[in-house]
Amino acid sequence: LSLLRKLVANALVVAKQPAMSSLQQRPLMLKTRVRFSVTVRFLANLPVFKDLLKVKPVFDKDVQEAKTIKGFRHFEFNREECKVLDVDTPDGGLVAEFGHMFLKEKRGRYKGSSETRLGVTEELHIIKFVAEFKHAGLECNLEASSLPVIVISSTNQVLSAWASVMWYNTLSTSEPRNLSLFADPPPLTWQQLSQVLSWQFLSVGKRGLDEDQLAMLRDKIVGDGPDDLVHWSKFSKNEGAWIWIDGILDLVKKHLVDLWRDGCIMGFVSRKRTLTLLQEKQTGTFLLRFSETNKDGAITFSWVEHTNGETHVHAVQPYTKPELSGMCLPDIINLYSLKAETNVTGNPLRYLYPDIHKDTALGRYYKNSPLSATQKIIDGYVKRTNIPVSTFPTPPPSPPREIPFTDMDMDMDTEISMDLDQLLQELYPDFFGPGTSSQSFADYSS
Amino acid sequence: LSLLRKLVANALVVAKQPAMSSLQQRPLMLKTRVRFSVTVRFLANLPVFKDLLKVKPVFDKDVQEAKTIKGFRHFEFNREECKVLDVDTPDGGLVAEFGHMFLKEKRGRYKGSSETRLGVTEELHIIKFVAEFKHAGLECNLEASSLPVIVISSTNQVLSAWASVMWYNTLSTSEPRNLSLFADPPPLTWQQLSQVLSWQFLSVGKRGLDEDQLAMLRDKIVGDGPDDLVHWSKFSKNEGAWIWIDGILDLVKKHLVDLWRDGCIMGFVSRKRTLTLLQEKQTGTFLLRFSETNKDGAITFSWVEHTNGETHVHAVQPYTKPELSGMCLPDIINLYSLKAETNVTGNPLRYLYPDIHKDTALGRYYKNSPLSATQKIIDGYVKRTNIPVSTFPTPPPSPPREIPFTDMDMDMDTEISMDLDQLLQELYPDFFGPGTSSQSFADYSS
DNA sequence: ACAGTTTCCCGTAAATGC
DNA sequence: TGCATTTACGGGAAACTG
Question: What sequence ranges are listed for the domain SH2 (chains A, B) (predicted)?
């Protein structure tokens, strides 16, 4: 999520007449000590007022919350500055642009006795633009308000600030501006939240979430509670859904935009459903799904194998962002190999679910193109590629496990995994003996 | 290279008596807008003076160069501040510590008519500490000078600043302090430079450079000129030796400290010498050498192969820092495999030059330990490793080429490589036909 | 002691200046 | 215009602070 650095106040409103402002009701995000610019536009397009209107930005003017919410932070601009509204060249309106502005915190937070206490990314601030208008004995005050602003001091707060943005935006389509929204934040219906989440993927990856993906998310986030409501604290808290989804959004943005846009990634599918879907398909059918445990975004592929009348579904250890920096997912899929002790190697991945040949689905994304593959020597050096290899997993697939957010906890999750490993060891002791996988390639010329 | 952030002025000298200062003659590096601290210590250990000495740091006081060298930058401290010398708790000396200081550039460079023009990392500045001493009618001025200071504004200048530091330090062991050193910088003898370079490796990797390594560097840097002198402009310029060596230092620091410290890396060996050394050894003998073309530090391995009475020496495409972040060099060596069309795979690397088995030399650094390799499934996921693979390079090794810095130029170098490829293609057309290296693994279950 | 919050600063990219 | 130098700021980590 890149920071919004351009704050545009579209309206300068005549005092006491809060007309206009057909603004989208979205809060903005500003980082202290980072430059931004604001443009104020006088919507009444009257060049007559030229040179008569002096505008000045004021932070949190008349904001009640600043004096009632305990610990509410105070900020100020780097400089006190007035600007005269001038004619905008293209369309002739009156504008003033404040450039090179930044925000710094003023010492002395409000230490009221109020019981409400907000996290910094739950504080909603306002930038007001005030202007005096004096002409021919007439005198009146003009005021225009920016959208609500969330002020952060570090990029590590973008995550939770963005959660606030989404929550506020969704609720503000129905309610009027409420800067105390997070003092007692209303829940969202799943219908509302799912739409917002889908938009995030649309915005980052040019494709929203489909019914199946949303259904999986609904199971994880809402569970089978009595109602369809998602509560703010549950959504935004450390182990909540948002941190996980945001990690995936970032993963998509950095490494999977094309694949996601073209619908190659099923992504949000439970293990259980993966099993159900794949076991009916032919050997070599695989699908891509996001890790449900990795908080930083990770993706794995699962594939099905029918041998000797048995059906196995396997899933590879999820790939993380640093790993995908080394090799893109299509190449990984293209090169992935299984290795048995007998040294027979092969790629178990053949058809992207439901039945599209992997080269048809992903061929256009391969970086290791056949062309460059013909060059075995470059600049006198022997070329090389990394081949992702697993040792042949003949044990059956792990039993599916569901991890609803409602009760999710990393420690518990780890324990489940341990039990699972133990179970596997009991069922298939042969596969857990002392192995030699890292040495079992035939030694060269031996 | 991490920035030196602690500037310690050990001496406060009575005016006109530049005694003491058994300081190492090393310039320091300071970055504008980055905090540092200075401690001034009054070496005459007399607590009698307590509360009588007020010290104040002044930047470039009385520095002639600031007024004679064209474009010389001016700086000032973030605040004017005097401090009273106080008793230092442990040893009873008089000290004042200036913390939270930083430097910012003052507008208005000196635009003298002098013909000398220095790069910013060639400017040598001074911080002086001045004190007035008044007692019983007596009055005198005390002054102490810091070591020379190189002021940079970005970490991208550390590279060339460090070159200046080395040059200055080497020359200052014989000459007195000379802030105009780089106006007409004297050359260093190879003897001097080689010692400095060896120190860099000692400092970064706990092991200096041996005779063979220095001989190779001498060939590259001095060539076979009439004398042993290395000139500043040649050393520090963009295509000079330092940028290349610094890239290697950084590579060692980030990914190869252990290997370097234990002497596993021959590193500075020419291609020609690599050929000579390896062709006498048994098949599977390899050595590690740094890339001579990659400016950001890269390492490759060369190995020898005797088959059918022919001897071939091959070198793998060099590994860069980002690649080594994904897998450490010992693991790469341990897992490296050659692949022929017949699907026979194997690791051609067996003995670290001269004849140490690779597991003996590198085994302790393997991250993919046999223990973890026994686990084929983790948390229900199939484990995986990346195996670095090359397609069998049957053509003979590339003809050795020497790249002396004296005439080195990247463009030319690239052309040489192109010619080399063309040559290889003419000699061994079979190996440049349409290949299938990325698909030639047997397809799973086909 | 600790968690939420801010500062610090490297390293890269972009902007600026000459 | 190109190169030298500075600024900008994301991101990770340390420092702060109640």
Answer: 260-396
More confident residue, B174 or B298: B298
Q: How far is the CA of A164 from the C1' of C7 (A)?
A: 24
Closest CA to B316 of B337, B342, B341, B340: B337
Q: Which of A357-371, A427-441, B55-69, B242-256 has the lowest mean pLDDT?
A: A427-441
Pick the residue with more confidence: A401 or B117?
B117
B354 prior amide bond cis, ω within 30:
yes
Q: Quote the longest CA-to-CA distance of chain A.
A: 103
Size of interface A-B (CB pairs under 8 A): 224
pLDDT tens by residue, A298-322 = 999 999 999 888 999 999 999 999 9
pLDDT tens for A38-82 read: 888 877 666 666 777 888 999 999 888 888 888 899 999 988 888
Question: Which residues have CB under 7 A from strand C?
Answer: A 32-33, 73, 105, 119-121, 152-154, 156-157, 238; B 2-3, 5, 31, 34-35, 154-156, 158
The residue of chain B with its CA nearest to that of A431 is: B376
* Among chain A residues, CA nearest to B438: A373
Chain A residues near residue B336 by CB distance under 8 angstroms = 384
Q: Is the pLDDT of residue B11 over 80?
A: no
Cα distance between the two ends of chain A: 54
How far, in Å, CA of B140 to CA of B390, rounded? 76
High-pLDDT (> 90) share of chain B, %: 51
Q: Tell me the two tokens of residue B30.
A: 């300071």
CB contact under 8 A, A322 and B318: no
State the nearest Cα–Cα gap between A4 and chain B, in angstroms: 26
**Is residue B134's pLDDT more than 70?**
yes
Strand-pair category, B13-14 with B345-346: unpaired
The burial class, CB within 10 Å (0-12 / 13-18 / 19+), for A97 is middle
Phi then psi for residue B89, to 5 deg, are -55, -55
Query: Does A253 or A408 have the greater pLDDT score?
Result: A253
The helix/strand/coil state of A420 is helix
Tokens of B38: 């200075």
Please count the CA atoms within 13 angstroms of the CA of A285 that sit on its side-chain side.
Answer: 18
Phi, psi (5° rounding) for residue B140? -150, 160
- Residues around strand D, C-beta < 7 Å: A 2-3, 5, 31, 34-35, 154-156; B 32-33, 73, 105, 119-121, 152-154, 156-157, 238
B82 CA: distance to closest CA in chain A (Å) = 27
Cα separation of B404 and B216, whole Å? 10
Residue B30 contacts residue B155 (beta carbons within 8 Å) = no
pLDDT bracket for residue B393 (50, 70, 90): low
Q: How far is the CA of A155 from the C1' of D9 (A)?
A: 10
How confident is residue A341, by pLDDT bands cut at 50, 70 and 90?
Answer: low
Shortest CA gap A92–chain B (Å): 39
User: What six digits make up the tokens of A282?
Assistant: 């032919």
**Token pair of B85 as six digits:** 């010398």
Distance between CA atoms of residues B316 and A377, nearest Å: 9
- Among B360, B242, B350, smallest CA distance to B301 is for B350
pLDDT over 50 at A413, yes or no? no
What is this structure's pTM? 0.82
B432 chain-A contacts, CB cut-off 8 A:
374-376
The pLDDT score that the predictor gives to residue A87 is 76
Nearest chain A residue to B380, by CA = A398
What's the gap in Å between the CA of B248 and the closest CA on chain A? 19
Protein CB footprint (7 Å) on chain D nucleotides? 4-13
Q: For residue B349, what is the nearest residue in chain A, using CA coordinates?
A: A444
| Bases in strand C with any atom closer than 7 Å to a protein CB | 4-13
* CA–CA dist B208, B217 (Å, integer): 13
